[in-house]
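Supplementary Text 2. Reproducibility record for the structural model of the 97-residue chain.

All settings were left at their defaults, and a single model was retained for analysis rather than an ensemble. We include the record here because the model underlies the residue-level annotations in Supplementary Table 4.
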Amino acid sequence: MTNSNAVFTGTEISPIGSAETLGKDGDAKNILVRVDFNVPLDGDLKITDDSRIRGAIPTIDIILKSGNNAILMSHMGRPKKVQKNGDYYLNLCLKLL
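Retained model, structure tokens:
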């Protein structure tokens, strides 16, 4: 589908329109949002630049204020092997949301 503003309804992909029309039909929708939360971390796993997270907040706010659910999809880092201690978990970004 060529429309970048679309939602999968379970059986088909249908356009969702603009942010202002979300939830106008009274039914809450689950909106999948691809966000870039791959933020830089220091040696203590503290976020050193949160601009990517702050940049996504207006979109998330519009979805939530319209009565819908925002399902956020992202990744953290580029691990070279399987991480067992949680160094690259997205919960590092959670407190900023």
